[in-house]
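re: ur question from the group chat, yeah i did fold both. here u go
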Amino acid sequence: MASYIVGVLSKHNLARYQDYAMAGYRLIDGVEVEVAMAEAPDVQEGSFPGTSIIIMKFADDDAAAKWYASEGYQEVIPIRHESADTHFVVTFKS
């Protein structure tokens, strides 16, 4: 069954966030994942708590957990924290 990682971000340092995004694209190269992203999402109800949303669909919980816990991704998380306030919903069990 598919597993999802959903991130809601409020970017406050766009140049530094670009560093994170470029590293992120390199880190998913060769990984079986579908990525959907919306900048300034079109909100139908209420107010959206960020500037962007990212949804990553992995084949299963193991694939999502492996990618999230990977050394490469763990190394770039501080760049994300430095450049954006982030809220992540991770649906896999570790």
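okk and heres the other one u asked abt
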Amino acid sequence: MVKLRILEILEEQNKTKYWLCKNMGMHYVSFKKMVENETASIRFDTLEKLSELLKVPVGDLFAQAEE
């Protein structure tokens, strides 16, 4: 299973979920589900925006989850 590493990246960069949510322009509920890996899909434009804001390649947003 693949998971998003958003929380790990935010911690590495000393940035908050609030900062990211505000800059993403997302509704909080949708944002919370995304960062907590409780969503089944994510749009390509959302991945691109995450990549730009966090200044990481898109591939770095993902990790293989241990089951």
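fwiw on the second one: The longest strand covers residues 2-4. The CA atoms of residues 24 and 50 lie 7 Å apart. idk if thats what u expected
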